[in-house]
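Pair request: fold both.
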Amino acid sequence: MFNVLNKNHKGFTLIELLVVIGIIGLLATIITMNVQSARQKARCAKRRADIVSLQAPLEAYYDANKTYPNTSGAWWSPDNCYSYGGHDVYGSNGWIPNLAPTYIRRLPSDPKPGSIGPCYLYNSDGTNYKILVHHPHLDGAVWDTKDTLYDPVRPYGGGNDAWMVCSGEPACSSW
């Protein structure tokens, strides 16, 4: 009878090792892609929640001061978005001036700081305001024109896309 087990066989062949390494590499790639996708979705959800959560403190500020925090019509941003000033998260130099710490403990910062990509922006003339998440598509945001935060002034595709919340007209449709 033919003996399948060879008693002199003491290890794996090169082919067997390459197959195992290939399978491990494939599994590692799939897991990494899934984790990356979950991280992007979590950052997008945080950005959306951050800008929506700023509406109540802004209205409280307005009730107390009869004006919104004013940036004289300029766009201000936290320090990860340097081309718009790179402001602080507190006080008169906060990216929403004087909102924190009185009306909100701390202004939010982008969940992926120091990155080139999405950042928060605020603009106000004192009468109206607009808050943006600028370029969310750069971090995997799914775009939908029926989205309640869709900014018609910055549609996807032109490289200037954004999610927004605003105080009303004209901020919502023209800034």
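--- second member of the pair ---
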Amino acid sequence: MGSLRDIYEIRWHGRGGQGAVTGSIILAEASSLEGLYSQAFPEFGPERRGAPVTAYTRISKRYIRTRAPIEDPDIVVVLDPSIPASTYLKRLKRDGYVVINTKRSAKDIAESLGIRGVVSVDGTSLALKILGSPIVNIAMLGALAKILNIVTLDSIARAVLKILYNIQTIGSLETILKSPGLGETAMGNIAVLSEAYRSAEVLL
């Protein structure tokens, strides 16, 4: 997406155990690393495995005064493609984007949904291949970074390590990937993030 508006609002849709709430928190932390104001919160308390989960991230150049649920998102991030389109498309802005975990092409998704802006990534396959787990939130953050250019992939990588592992890092994603001693799982998540960013298909 282009230059920073006064505020960006991102709504996350997934199921319990896929990491939607954690993904929203990581994005807020990455935004803070960029010197922006941010907030993240779930719609309904803790996640229950398999149950629908909605979470929110706001990013702004100015102090954020509201904590109301996001009703008119700029971007929706869909971690589970079985969620009904009517749920995640609800009140999406006309120039908004759907970032979706799917094996289908961005063009196919756009045509089936009747929208223009789509980012598609096979996050499940990436997570299973690299981590051996179907938790897709990190892959979705990588895909989201393709269009949310106000938050760099480097900052998201640093936020992943801070939120998930309490590891403080500096420098670029490339530097982090070469860092010794981060641990296999931590490095796996950074690899998922990087590969999702590389492989995500964007339709503007």
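Observation on the second member. The longest strand covers residues 7-15.
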